[in-house]
Amino acid sequence: MSFTVWAPKAQAVRVRVDGTDQAMTAGTGGWWSADVDGTDYAFLLDDSDDALPDPRSLWQPEGVHGPSRRYDHGAFRWTDGDWTGRQLAGGVVYELHIGTFTPEGTLDSAIAKLDHLVDLGITLVEVLPVNSFDGTDGWGYDGVLWGAVHEPYGGPDAFKRFVDACHARGLGVLLDVVYNHLGPSGAYLDRFAPYFAGRNDWGPGLNLDGPESDEVRRYVVDNALGWLRDFHVDGLRLDAVHALLDRRATHLLEQLAVEVDALSAGLGRPLTLIAESDLNDARLVTAREGGGYGLQAQWSDDLHHCLHVALTGETHGYYADFAEPGALARTLTDVFFHAGTWSSFRGRTHGRPVDTRVLPGYRFLAYLQNHDQIGNRATGDRMSATVSPGLLACGAAIVFCSPYTPMIFMGEEWAASTPWQFFASFPDQELADAVRTGRRREFGAHGWGEAEVPDPMDPATARRSKLDWAESDEPAHREVLDLYRSLIALRRDHPELADPRLADLAVEQLGTVLVMRRGDLRLVCNLGATAVTQSLDSAGGSVLLASGDVALAGQTVRLSAESFAIVQTAGSSSSQPTSASLSANS
């Protein structure tokens, strides 16, 4: 068996296999190799006695500081040989965190909940990072060994069982990966080679364009291809790509997109790359033939911010700009609110316009909530903690009736009462204290008292963040679950709701009333505290779905406070209604 490692500056490298050291042989390009039989291994550089895990490790049974373990991809017995993949267009994404999705917090226990997602109408499951990080509990964004599945979740075989089980139920799997930084504990890459170049807000960044960066880029691309090829994942969500500092003519993202497209052709199934970006630049999702990077989609934070302000009334920090009259309608039609316009939070102009004539809406993900927008609040409170059920229903209707790809965060579908807070479990006490102090100082600057900010290192913080599945059967929560199920079914049964053509979308926002036109369907939302009567541009034929009291007469519809109605206009050639109206408390 051959062991290899890239260590171009080392004068000598040994591999410790099952407790015995073996000298490695230098090869071309700074690569070292040795043929040794064994299972557990680590590398020792020059005269150091520090045994370091493999930067390309696939298995870390003793954590990020322990030895790596050999892993044979060919030994796993897949049952998804007939799986042909899931395209993003027309899909619905469900974001979940393995450690808090179930009481057990494991990949195997998550499999037992997949039928709930199928019943809900989900098509793609987005899993927060499963790569190895120091400690037992954490969000996963402080990973340091990107190819090894976090052992407390179950390790590599458990992740394969999860993906296999998803495919058996018709669910595609998207995996959240972090290439913009490494975590603060166990990041030994720089001991081997010039992997690092500078820092960003979260930690050391990668050397993507400096000397010897070819192998660093290869490290990233090979990791991405490994998840897609060897773990049968259907796509990747790329964390904070704006922090990938790359001045090459061909950006890392474009290189990645080219190689993923090639792999997709070889595998015969669609593979999706979704960017999280703060740039408001649609070049990320513009085809390479059109001068873009060729990614399939990106998150749309501007739309989230508009919805958040419209539903909660919060206008502090970066939310201030989105309180502008008509901001929600404008962003629904234009994708970005900041499109070469002034951003008061940044103190400069930001973004560029989207050409809605050529770019389809499915390339942008729309959501009321996600792990960041909940977890990065001081107390990790969900929108359901402060917003009425009626307004939550309106927000969900806007998301699912939009031309964008809808995404929901675990538990949102029943208005879960459990928070999702920031938590970590670094064993190093000095690091743990620094994270704890930094978190409290950050929110103290925004007016929160220290006692109000949960201790991220307290195991109780992670426990509080676990979903309480029992409450999904309680009457008030079940009404919300029925609403989400009905909205997703309506989107599936009426193709005009999933139509991604942005140029055909028309949205009006007059005071507290928003009207969205989707072919022969009209979504009418009353976000106000009193009943309203709204004129339609054509006679309404029937109400397909509603929350609250609705009366339809000719070209007018009357809605109770904080409610919505989806109306099919008279003479429509659309399919007949398949969903009944819901109660006012939905």
UniProtKB/TrEMBL annotation:
Listed GO MF terms: 4-alpha-D-(1->4)-alpha-D-glucanotrehalose trehalohydrolase activity
NCBIfam families: trehalose_TreZ
Protein name according to UniProt: Malto-oligosyltrehalose trehalohydrolase
Source organism of this protein record: Umezawaea tangerina
Active-site residues (renumbered): 239, 276
Site entry: Transition state stabilizer: 372
Gene Ontology, cellular component aspect: cytoplasm
Annotated keywords: Carbohydrate metabolism, Cytoplasm, Glycosidase, Hydrolase
PANTHER family: 1,4-ALPHA-GLUCAN-BRANCHING ENZYME, MALTO-OLIGOSYLTREHALOSE TREHALOHYDROLASE
Binding site for substrate: 237-242, 301-305, 371-376
Keyword Cytoplasm: yes
Family: Belongs to the glycosyl hydrolase 13 family.
UniProt-listed Enzyme Commission number(s): 3.2.1.141
Domain Glycosyl hydrolase family 13 catalytic: residue ranges: 75-491
Keyword match DNA-binding: no
Known catalytic reactions: hydrolysis of (1->4)-alpha-D-glucosidic linkage in 4-alpha-D-[(1->4)-alpha-D-glucanosyl]n trehalose to yield trehalose and (1->4)-alpha-D-glucan
An example Gene Ontology biological process: trehalose biosynthetic process
